[in-house]
Amino acid sequence: MKRGDIVVRRSYGEDIQFRIESISGDLAILRGLEVRLLADAPLSDLVRMPVTVEDAYRRWDVSVEQRTRQLLRDIEGRTRGGRAIVSRTGEDDETFDLPGKVLHLDGDPNYMRKCMQVYGRLRIPAEGHYVPEAEMADVLSRILPHSRPDIVVITGHDGLYKHHQDKQQLASYKNSHNFVRAVQVVRQYERNRDAVTVIAGACQSHFEALLQAGANFASSPARILIHALDPVHIAVKAAYTSIRDTVRVTEALSHTQSGVRGMGGYETRGSFRVGTPKIG
User: Fold this and answer.
1) In this structure, are 22 and 61 located in the same domain?
2) Per-position pLDDT tens, the chain of length 280
3) For residues 195 and 96, what is the distance between their CA atoms, to the nearest angstrom?
4) Which stretches of 148-190 are DSSP H helices?
């Protein structure tokens, strides 16, 4: 076994593929390949998969592309069709769309790149930074005044410690306390939860603590695993919901793979604007 290998865990029925992040003695630190889970396991519990990281992500790209196309169809239907998310004047040729701007901090560089590709495909102005979870609060305090986002995504990897199963204690989570600190920094910058929408958390994160800190949407109400792109799909919904309307929470969650057990939140004003005259 070596760093970068794709593995599964025998003790969990080989259900999730991980990438070995590091090895210390007989213990490996693992990061989920498609889920935002941070875990550790003895090397004896691991089974190496006969695939390279490149092959694994190439297969993942296919499913991501399918989801992105579905989101794009939904957006186009809402902005141009009968279920438009904004009330147009009838002079569509003279208007232009301005989705909300996203600032995305991610504790996984591979996920960060993939998320930025999705924002680009969906024409959402986005600024992305790979930042280790423990450094997110400090980084946000520096870049928020320059970025001035409408939506902030704070995510990476998380998980419950095996021997700390009290789900109400932050100490039972690997990174929830870091996400909480980062959310608090955003709320020190902007207290109005409709002015800046915050989406925070990863697999099994302390949902209640993140909402109490000031997040509009967070994971994970049922402490389950969430897909790597679930926070992005919520951000897309917020970016393309009109400033005149609130994000329909159940509809936003329907675009995620984990659903209402994996992510939750409360109604929040959208960030989508229509301008005139048309640019370009």
Assistant:
1) no
2) 888 899 999 988 888 889 898 999 999 999 888 888 888 899 999 999 887 767 766 666 666 666 677 777 776 665 544 344 444 444 456 788 899 999 999 999 988 988 998 899 889 999 999 999 999 999 999 999 999 999 999 999 999 988 766 899 999 999 999 999 999 999 999 999 999 999 999 999 999 999 999 999 999 999 999 988 999 999 999 999 999 999 989 988 988 889 999 999 999 999 999 888 876 6
3) 21
4) 176-189
Candidates 50, 94, 108, 123; CA nearest to 231 is: 108
One domain for residues 26 and 164: no
Residues 152 and 267 in one domain: yes
Alpha helices in the chain (DSSP H): 53-80, 109-121, 136-147, 176-189, 207-213, 230-239, 249-253, 259-262
- Quote the CA–CA distance of 230 and 173 in Å, as a whole number: 20
Q: Which two tokens stand for residue 62?
A: 């296919």
Domain that holds residue 17: 6-51
**Which amino acid is residue 44, in one-letter code?**
S
Contacts of residues 81-86 at CB distance under 8 Å and 24 or more positions apart, as own/partner, are 85/240, 85/241, 85/242, 85/245, 85/270, 85/272, 86/242, 86/244, 86/272, 86/274
Position 277, amino acid: P
Residue 1 lies in a domain: no
State the Cα–Cα distance between residues 75 and 148, nearest whole angstrom.
24
